[in-house]
Design a protein that fits this description.
Length: 62
């Protein structure tokens, strides 16, 4: 998390998309997310207040 918001490496639940993913990049306030497993297409979110951090970066499975 950065400044109380999701950031690169955080696992999040996207309330808008109703899916869970990992933040892979942030540019100009737009978040790029990828699925947790299985590959597939990533998606964008421009509403960081709708990204709920479920596992902060560094606290994931080891």
């Amino acid at each position: 998390m950065k400044d109380g918001k999701a950031w690169v490496g955080d696992q999040v639940f996207d309330e808008d998309a109703q899916r869970e993913g990992i933040v892979t990049d942030v540019k100009n306030g737009v978040y790029l997310l990828r699925p947790l497993a299985g590959g597939g297409a990533g998606w964008l979110s421009s509403t960081p207040d709708q990204l709920r951090v479920t596992v902060p970066r560094g606290e994931g499975a080891r």
